[in-house]
Amino acid sequence: HAKRNGRNGYQFHTQGMNDHVLETLWVDRDLRRALEENQFVLYYQPKIDLVNGRITGAEALIRWQHPTRGLVMPGQFIRVAEERGLIVALGDWVMREACRQNKAWQEAGMAELPIAINLSAQHFRLSTLLRDVKRTLQDHALGADCLELELTESSIMQDAVATIATMRRLTEVGVVLALDDFGTGYSSLSQLKGLPLANLKLDQSFVRGLPDDHDDLAICTAVIAMGQALGLKVIAEGVETPEQLAALRTLGCDVGQGYLFARPLPAAQFMEFVQRHGGMEVTAFGALGDNA
Ligand code: C2E
Ligand code: MG
Ligand code: MG
Ligand code: MG
Questions:
Q1: What pLDDT was estimated at residue 3?
Q2: What's the complex ipTM?
Q3: Are 269 and 250 in contact (CB under 8 A)?
Q4: Coil, strand or helix: which one is 63?
Q5: How far apart are alpha carbons 133 and 124 in whole angstroms?
Q6: What residues are in contact with ligand 1 under a 6 Å CB criterion?
Q7: 71, 64 in Cβ contact below 8 A?
Q8: Cα separation, 163 vs 214, whole angstroms
Q9: Three-state DSSP class for 279?
Q10: HSE (CB half, 13 Å, CA atoms) of 41?
Q11: Distance between CA atoms of residues 147 and 176, nearest Å
Q12: Cys bridge to 211: 40, 44, 75, 247, which one at CB 3.0-4.6 A?
């Protein structure tokens, strides 16, 4: 801790600010090269059907294997990638890598699963996204049902007209779209109504308080009921405890994702997880919590 008064306390504060600037500086400095040298890797987190306990798919989450800093999480570099105009190249890599891995899993005999990737707002504004998605699926001999795209409310609202047009064309060729972090943005229900979405991802900040926090319970209840009424599949994010799981199942939530089932896993471990848990039934929910 900094000293309460005198020069040391002030210096401590200044040092902290320098550290913050340096933190983004190294990201800035190393990110372009990381793309050129392929320093990224995807981890995969299973999504679990809350009715029958089966694995319904996975979300691909990017990590940066930095040569000296180790595994860097997306929270530390996605925003810089967006600011530096690198996010579309990064998203293209994520799409190709997720498809390559999915094909490799299928060839290794793993059950066929859709893999969801996260794309930034900038990517959805591009009229070329549809063409790139189709080409990537084709290059890997995958059907459109093998890839899902997650985007946030704020992504849509940044350029609603272009984004919604792209979304519509993507759904026409069979790509599933999911609204990520639902409830944390500012879109109104009337804006949501017209969107070509299949899945709604209930943000983990609302799942966290289940079942005791009255506000979180009310929000989860409302979102799940609304999703059902609109014909959307609701996916709860950040399911960490058996109590949260029980509450979500009682509310009729379709799918869950979280540390209770599995953390995001490297590709080989994800396949092991699927092979170990793939055929599990609803009565085995307790066992699903026993992570590797
Ligand atoms: P997201 O898409 O909402 O992903 C869910 C985040 O919650 C992931 O963090 C995941 O590891 C974490 N998570 C999963 N289960 C639990 C749980 O039970 N408890 C808690 N506390 N957290 C859980 P991660 O991997 O650090 O990613 C953070 C965000 O970075 C993602 O949020 C997404 O917005 C962004 N991101 C990740 N990969 C990519 C990518 O390839 N491209 C882009 N553009 N953004 C990405
Ligand atoms: Mg996501
Ligand atoms: Mg999310
Ligand atoms: Mg999130």
A1: 39
A2: 0.98
A3: no
A4: strand
A5: 11
A6: 45, 61-62, 73-75, 78, 91, 94, 117-120, 150, 180-181, 204, 237-240, 257-259, 264
A7: yes
A8: 35
A9: coil
A10: 14
A11: 7
A12: 247
